[in-house]
Design a protein that fits this description.
alpha/beta, Rossmann fold, 5 strands, about 20% strand, globular
Length: about 140
């Protein structure tokens, strides 16, 4: 694949999951940079915490994977904060929930947020390729 994403962010409190996802993304060579965060608060602060007048200080990630069930700030809270960002900020990033939960209540809650992808763990090459085709027109 010639065109790459600049920056993919993984937010998951499970280090093994983050490690495996990071390895998969490296193997697929889909991003120039992959950042991992074990805490949603840290990830949010790093990515959008300094959004001055709608302009984030860090470069907006192309894709963010967030787990739903995490201690402290969970994925739902993260989505809520993200959805409150200015549209100009949000349109730069594809948000994807990556979770073990296939619970109808969770999928319904995530569905309230427009444009958020819902993926079941584990992240696989096939799921990644589908997401890239659908949202980035990369194959």
């Amino acid at each position: 694949m010639s065109k790459k994403l600049r920056n993919v962010v993984l937010v998951d409190d499970n280090e093994t999951t983050s490690f495996l996802n990071n390895r998969l993304l490296s193997r697929l060579d889909v991003a120039e940079q992959v950042q991992t965060f074990s805490k949603a608060e840290q990830a949010y602060q790093h990515l959008w915490g300094n959004t001055q007048g709608g302009q984030p200080t860090a470069e907006a990630p192309d894709l963010v994977f967030v787990d739903l069930k995490m201690p402290g700030m969970d994925g739902f809270e993260f989505l809520k904060l993200y959805s409150a960002l200015p549209e100009a900020v949000r349109e730069k990033t594809v948000m994807a929930v990556l979770t073990t939960s296939m619970h109808a209540a969770d999928t319904a809650r995530v569905a309230q947020y427009e444009g958020v992808e819902y993926l079941a763990k584990p992240l696989t090459e096939e799921k990644m390729q589908k997401l890239l085709q659908k949202r980035f027109e990369l194959a």
